[in-house]
Design a protein that fits this description.
It contains ten helices and ten strands. By secondary structure, it is of the alpha/beta class. The radius of gyration is 18 Å and the shape is globular.
């Protein structure tokens, strides 16, 4: 089993002026980002370009996915000022494309969908013309909760399948592969113009044939955009890396995925759901 990162997944420690400015702004408004909570390797690059993925609904997740570094447990009460604060920070940053994600909130009757919609409302009210992308949980398959988000004015709906179906019990206990596919399919049925997006992390024990089969499943439910990246163990408490996929393999997967008809494919060792997100719709 791999112990050391190969050179192609090593990145510089963050510290640019924009990185430090964004960190201060987020703290001033008591906001969280998945960039920090999930220990994303691209935080220096993205924050250096004034882009971030906002994490709403608190920073404690009700599920126990074994790849994720976000804290698990009993969440705190929702912050009613959070949606407005996100809109204010987005305005301060002058962004044209924003990504909003969340922890899983299985403790809430609607899974947090109304909070998502309020956040989208304030982002768009304070930032006319902005494109809003959301990376959502599965809401336990609740289509009413999903529709609340789909009809909130978003441009892209992202829901990650994360891995191949065989590995769900190992990687995503508490989640269901077919339920995730249904979320993407249902979103298209609710709003044909909304772009749907999903992603997989590689290196947790999947085969390349399984990856291609999963990509085929995503296209079958109308998924427009897909991201493929290398899983990196955030800490010793999460799953270990089974294998490092080479840059050449990622390039081949990108070419193979394009033949399936995806509108855009982002594939590479450091690719994450929101990496270069603004370019996925161009």
């Amino acid at each position: 089993m791999p112990r050391r990162h190969p050179d192609w997944v090593k990145v510089r420690a963050p510290g640019s002026p924009n990185y430090l400015r964004l960190k201060r702004i987020l703290r001033d408004h008591n906001l969280h980002t998945v960039c920090e909570e999930a220990r994303c390797p691209n935080i220096g690059e993205c924050w250096g370009h004034n882009t971030a993925t906002f994490l709403i609904l608190g920073d404690i997740c009700t599920r126990g996915c074994r790849f994720c570094a976000i804290s698990k447990g009993k969440p705190t009460l929702l912050d009613p000022e959070e949606p407005h604060n996100v809109g204010l920070v987005v305005k301060d940053l002058g962004l044209e494309h924003i990504v909003v994600t969340s922890v899983d909130r299985d403790d809430l009757p609607d899974g947090g969908s109304a909070h998502f919609a309020k956040t989208v409302f304030w982002i768009k009210s304070l930032n006319p013309g902005i494109r809003v992308e959301v990376l959502i949980p599965d809401f336990k398959g609740d289509h009413r909760a999903l529709e609340t988000v789909v009809r909130s004015g978003i441009h892209i709906l992202n829901h990650n399948v994360e891995t191949v179906p065989r590995l769900y019990k190992k990687v995503r206990p508490g989640s269901v592969y077919n339920r995730s596919l249904d979320i993407l399919k249902a979103a298209k049925g609710m709003r044909a113009d909304v772009l749907t997006k999903s992603g997989l992390m590689l290196g947790v024990g999947e085969t390349l044939d399984e990856v291609m089969a999963t990509l085929g499943d995503l296209r079958a439910v109308g998924c427009d955009i897909v991201t493929l990246g290398q899983y990196l163990q955030p800490s010793k408490d999460q799953l270990a890396v089974e294998r490092y996929v080479t840059p050449d393999e990622f390039e081949q997967l990108k070419a193979d995925a394009r033949t399936l008809g995806f509108r855009h494919v982002e594939s590479g060792p450091l690719v994450r759901s929101s990496y270069h997100a603004w370019s996925h719709v161009n």
